[in-house]
Amino acid sequence: MESTSQTRIQWIDTAKLLGIYLVILGHIPMTNNDLTALIYSFHMPLFFFLSGIMVKNEKIYETATKSLKTLIVPYVCFYLINLLYFFINVYFRKTEFLGDNLLKSFLGMFVGVVFDTDFSTMVSHPLWFLLGLFCCRLLYSMINNISGNHNKIVQIIFCIIFVVAAFLLKKSQLFLPWSLGSAFLAYPFFLMGSFVSKTVKTDKFIIQNKIFIAIIMLVAFGVDYVLTFINGGFDISRISFGHNIVLSYITAFVGIIFLIMLSNLIKQLPSFFNLLAKNTIIILAFHRIITNWIIFPLKKIYTFEVLDEKVLLPIIMAVVVAIAALFACYIPIKIINVFFPWMLGKKKLQKSV
Hints:
Blueprint lengths: L9 H17 L6 H8 L2 H11 L6 H34 L4 H14 L16 H20 L4 H21 L7 H16 L1 H4 L9 H22 L13 H21 L5 H8 L1 H22 L3 E3 L2 E3 L2 H14 L1 H10 L14
Antiparallel strand pairs: 1-2
Helix pairs in contact: 1-2, 1-3, 1-11, 1-12, 1-13, 1-14, 3-8, 3-11, 4-5, 4-6, 4-13, 6-8, 7-8, 10-11, 13-14
């Protein structure tokens, strides 16, 4: 989800745009859980896969320095903005135990896991991805430097170790700070992206036969839907992998194939959508606040189902709200790129903004 100055690859930007839309839609409570489960089966694996495609073989110091600037700086800045919004929201609602809530929410930034602990709670759950990606980058760089010649066998061995570690963390109900456990679970997607990088990191990776693309898309979608129905959800942030962890990985990779094929069908994005695709980190950080503001007036004119104090939207309405939220994210994108580019680790303004 990074915004970089590298040469843009159109199909990757398209995949990022489609993926971030699914992130927004997946975070809207809906009356039909099947669509949410289907989205969760591959939407975050997709972003780790795309990040793996763009990874570079660098020294650990270089990787850490760049990742601190492009991932951790945005994480801290956007977390504090979300925390301020949370504080203002809770204050005006006059919720009890404000001090306790604020302290736990502040500590949540340092703990960096989406579920509540005895001493922390994360006010902006989507930001876990930045920490998870930071960990994946460091792990990848460390293993490459240890193996000397970027040995794929060594990477695969460590990848298996990470997956087993994630499995044991889930079974023992333990967690590691900074979403490290989630990074373990996501590492196969990141690693696979790095393996196919030279093949797909080009605009020449475009399949011309639209009929062939459509067939692959339909088959992949059908397989993904069936496997999700059989195996259950896959939530990397909570280290949740349904009934069978191997089946979850298969389902996710099939879903990634589906979205890549769909991205191949879209040859060129209009400039507005290109701008959104280049700033998915900002969308990740602010879409929930924006979505809540869109839903708020709807509650005045429409009677929704409610479950566990959450308003459930019909699927069609959720799809429309997600589109509106995606477009509305243009506002924080413009503000941050023009006035606060340092929040994204940038020194200069992007010409396209």
